[in-house]
Design brief:
Blueprint lengths: L1 E3 L13 H7 L9 E4 L12 E4 L12 E7 L8 H11 E12 L4 H8 L5 H8 L18 H7 L4 E2 L2 E3 L10 H13 L2 H4 L1 E7 L2
Parallel strand pairs: 1-2, 1-4, 2-3, 4-5
Antiparallel strand pairs: 5-8, 6-8, 7-8
Length: 203
């Protein structure tokens, strides 16, 4: 299994969500869990068996060597979508799975992120999501973040992608704002409050 865009494994250090950590940890549940990222921080990721650096968009693994790729909150950062898809295709075995979670392009947090210049994201996130660390904040592009975009980019792949609305993640650390955002999540269209859960099978 390849965790593409694994980073330092920030979720692994979240001591307040032990159950989610247990569910998410794949190390020991698969034959080999590999983390890959453009950031050197991936080399310290404790949730994997092996970690590698992505250089010029290339993951240093052989063609067709991976059964499963997971990509958690990474797709929104991809600028060259065609090259990204090509690398995913190269790495996966025929019948392999690509699974990703990413904000929908029309979601309110994606819309705000596009209004705020990338160099201001850290300052903005510090206010609306106080628990998020600066080293886990990266520029966004949203070039493959709709159902239609996923279908176009991965044309010919079996596609089981859907939109899912979870609990609010952006609420300024306020219980009152959390309740307000929870109501919004219940009444607004899924694309405005949700994330894409991408499940694709390589032909």
């Amino acid at each position: 299994m390849l965790d593409l865009g694994a980073g330092r494994g920030a979720w692994y250090f979240d001591k307040s969500a032990q159950y989610r950590k247990t569910l998410r940890t794949m190390k020991g549940k698969v034959a080999r869990c590999i983390g890959a990222d453009v950031d050197q921080a991936v080399l310290t990721n404790p949730a994997t068996d092996q970690n590698v650096i992505i250089t010029n968009g290339i993951v240093p693994l052989p063609d067709g060597s991976v059964d499963l790729i997971i990509c958690d909150f990474v797709v929104e950062h991809i600028v060259d979508v065609a090259s990204f898809k090509s690398e995913v295709n190269r790495l996966l075995k025929p019948g392999g799975f690509f699974c990703a979670r990413t904000p929908h392009k029309a979601s309110y947090f994606s819309l705000i992120a596009r209004l705020v210049k990338n160099h201001n994201h850290i300052r903005w996130l510090r206010r609306v999501q106080p628990a998020k660390k600066e080293e886990d904040t990266f520029p966004t592009a949203y070039r493959c973040n709709t159902l239609g975009a996923v279908r176009r980019v991965f044309s010919g792949w079996d596609d089981y992608t859907y939109i899912y609305t979870a609990e609010p993640a952006y609420f300024f650390g306020s219980k009152v704002m959390y309740k307000v955002m929870s109501v919004l999540h219940r009444i607004a269209p899924p694309s405005f409050t949700g994330c894409l859960f991408i499940f694709l099978i390589k032909p």
